[in-house]
Specification:
Two copies of one chain form a homodimer.
Chain A: H1 2-6, H2 14-30, E1 34-38, E2 46-51, E3 59-65, E4 84-87, E5 90-92, E6 106-108, H3 116-131, E7 139-145, H4 155-161, E8 170-173, E9 185-187, E10 189-201, E11 207-208, H5 209-212, H6 219-230, H7 251-259, H8 264-271, H9 282-285, E12 290-299, E13 308-309, E14 312-321, H10 327-340, E15 344-346, H11 352-357, E16 361-370, E17 373-374, H12 380-393, E18 398-400, E19 403-406, H13 409-416, E20 420-422, E21 438-440, H14 441-457
Chain lengths: ~450, ~450
């Protein structure tokens, strides 16, 4: 893990990505895997490996990604690529410390939690089995990609063009944090994604708000009004019929959510918030589609705020989709709603002629579109995974029918037509995608057990 | 005018302000004025001058300001302090051009329209009277301040401490643009001002919107919802009872507005907008209180937009007040409204303990507070000014009961207890407070006539 973090495998460092892929291939080869690098033009390679276990009837692909998120080094408390172990705020000289280590120590470094921990746990689990002389119960394939942080633009292409080599009975996705209760977790789906940047327009130049402020349209107000029409502060999407296509939860899925421990009071305290949106518990709320406002920009604030009407307002939004919804369908519902409110929808900045004719112009830039997936929790493969995880953990693991965040699960489902199940590792408070990313030691140990359990007990 | 613009009298250039004040004092002395510089700690001096006309029974103070707005030179087409005359987009060598000049030429330079044109017109009007041997009909005082661009923080102090020297029967405020019809204009009031920066809070750190986006409060949404509750996109303020204190327009004021030429279609075309807020004409709309959103900031947009819930949302707002309203009263109405919507109003950033107890916290920073003024349009002084302006212009001038923008008229009314009337000069499209500030030549000539008319015809 220490070694892997030091290899700077981030998009800004192509050499680091190449070096990491080469190192991972070596690590697999040393364990008896047949390996190859699956390439696509302009993409870091996918590290592929396969290991056949004589007598095994099932084959399972273990997915992870070896790239990390970009870093803004000055926001980190230490070099993101020089791992540090900490006990609370205190650094620990763990390489010279005598075991047992404290399971509450945290290991800091870019990609420590997202997602080199999955690769580390896989390798450690494999080695542990070998050390006690256990033979894998399944044939094992690994698929470790290197551009997840860039939304995996070549993932479909690589998967499709290597469909035969990737042939398997199940994909296990080693990514994402476990439930906030910190217990070992399986997830059976993930929400889809749909990004939108919307711009509304006022006058081309900022005008004095005293002379013109009740008469010249104010785009900041138009944006605010629009957001309040799209979504309220309790998390409800207000577009009529927005949820019509949503596939309801099954009885098993509802029961799984009802079984989750209540974390809400703890989380409100941990986060320092006096309320949460809506009146559902956290996981239940993420079973619905969501609209998040990620950013707003209009005019100036602070010392630069002028007595002027802003020229435009930009809204960065993100939809999270659930099964039954498609990006195309959501897009159509949003655009129909905007038109019903008097908006003219465009894709380029309007010229003066267009502004004169259309009183309310909104420019939409859609992006990052992919659907959700919820796998069948009652399939034989699913039952097999749950049983193996429970046995490895020594207790029933936490079952999430779907993760709130978006992962490209649909893609493996769509191309490979086999069950796709998530095997998360990281602590929920891992600061992934931000500075000071970290992995709680106990989470790594739990993961080694779960990975070893999958490799030695899985059978259906 | 050329010389005055070259003296860089902006807040960033204290030497330019000092040099301008000294130069103006010299110009007044040369015309027989008794002069002094009225100082306050930390303020550029007010240039004061007085000229007694034997036999005159009334004394009039002419207000203007010799400082200009700050400049962002790279946004200008030429050096803001090296004046350029232009015929459309074409430069004109006006110093070597033979009269008559084209009245549609524009003179570009910082403070050319705001407000050195008033000083220039005053001096030119005074000289013109002298040239034809006319004696002023009034005793004249000038009061030219140098920190209007910084909201005149020392204006009340200087006015109060020189109350005796400033004693007069009328103040004429030489500032602001004329009506959009470009006709010579008088205004009898100005709206007051009340700035507000409001901040609402989410979580202290940005959280993944996929995992937490239907549950952790989104401050961008809270801000949008609040703005939509405060004001709609037709310019209506929605706070219950907000207009209760508003003093209605008198019959004379209503009649003056009804007489204004309809400019709205021309303006919509000039501005390139397909609609205006509400269904009133422009000037009528500025007789009401206004709430303008000057800026919005939350999270990130564009390439920097992350899949995250923003930590806060900042709203820069500006109220324009009308007579009957006080800044204290408006502030109380806003805070009462916020409390009725469940907000806890604070003045400092909340700590974690406060965030845990109060589900919706809003931090308010109020600033720039002063009331409106509408002078009596039927007072003897007002009738005298209208008559003199009409005679000078050779036709009825445009009468505005109140300007939409805010000027410190209330202060002279409050301290000096005499009528205060506005004598604007600039073209409405002068780009004041922005790059490429300019003065239409015809507006300057009109102003010289009106100033000379005031000095030679005013009597009541």
């Amino acid at each position: 893990m220490d070694e892997l973090v030091r290899l700077q495998s981030v998009a800004a460092s192509p050499d680091g990505l190449t070096a990491t892929a080469a190192r991972l291939e070596t690590l697999l080869k040393a364990r008896g895997f047949k390996t190859s690098l699956m390439a696509a033009q302009g993409a870091p390679p996918v590290v592929f490996g396969s290991y056949n276990s004589p007598g095994a009837k099932r084959t399972v692909v273990f997915y992870a990604h070896y790239d990390g998120q970009p870093v803004t080094s000055e926001q980190w408390n230490s070099d993101p690529f020089v791992p540090v172990m900490r006990d609370g705020a205190k650094d620990v000289d763990w390489k010279n410390a005598k075991p047992p280590f404290d399971p509450e120590w945290h290991f800091f470094g870019r990609a420590a939690a997202d997602d080199k921990n999955s690769i580390t746990a896989f390798l450690a689990g494999f080695d542990a089995l070998k050390a006690i002389g256990h033979k894998p119960s399944i044939n094992i394939k690994v698929f470790w990609e290197g551009e997840e942080g860039r939304s995996s633009p070549h993932l479909a292409e690589i998967t499709r063009s290597h469909k035969d080599e990737l042939c398997a009975d199940l994909w296990l996705i080693g990514d994402a944090p476990v439930h906030q209760s910190r217990a070992p977790t399986l997830y059976f789906g993930a929400r889809g994604n749909l990004g939108l940047e919307a711009t509304v327009y006022g006058l081309r130049r900022a005008l004095h708000d005293g002379h013109y402020g009740n008469w010249v349209p104010n785009p900041a107000v138009m944006a605010a009004e629009l957001i309040a029409q799209l979504r309220d502060s309790e998390g409800r999407i207000l577009i009529p019929g927005f949820g019509d296509d949503v596939r309801p939860l099954t009885a098993e899925e509802k029961a799984a959510i009802a079984r989750l421990p209540s974390m809400e009071n703890d989380l409100r305290h941990e986060f320092g918030i006096g309320r949460s949106e809506g009146n559902e518990e956290l996981t239940a709320s993420t079973m619905r589609p969501a609209l998040n406002i990620k950013g707003l920009r209009s005019g100036q604030v602070g010392a630069e705020a002028a007595g002027a009407i802003p020229v435009d307002a930009i809204m960065a939004m993100g939809f999270r989709l659930v099964p039954g919804q498609t990006p195309q369908g959501v897009r159509a519902k949003v655009e129909t709603f905007l038109k019903s409110k008097g908006w003219t929808v465009v894709t380029d900045a309007p010229d003066t002629a267009a502004r004169l004719v259309h009183p309310r112009i909104i420019r939409l830039a859609w992006r990052d579109a992919y659907p959700a997936l919820r796998s069948d929790m009652t399939s034989p493969a699913a039952r097999g995974v749950i049983a193996a995880a429970n046995a490895a953990a020594g207790k029933p693991v936490t079952i999430l029918p779907m993760m709130g965040a978006s992962v490209h699960l649909y893609l493996f489902d769509d191309i490979m037509k086999v069950p796709v199940i998530g095997l998360p590792i990281s602590n929920h408070d891992n600061s992934q995608h931000a500075a000071n990313e970290n992995l709680r030691l106990r989470n790594l140990w739990d993961a080694v057990e779960v990975y070893a359990g999958m490799m030695s007990r899985l059978n259906w």
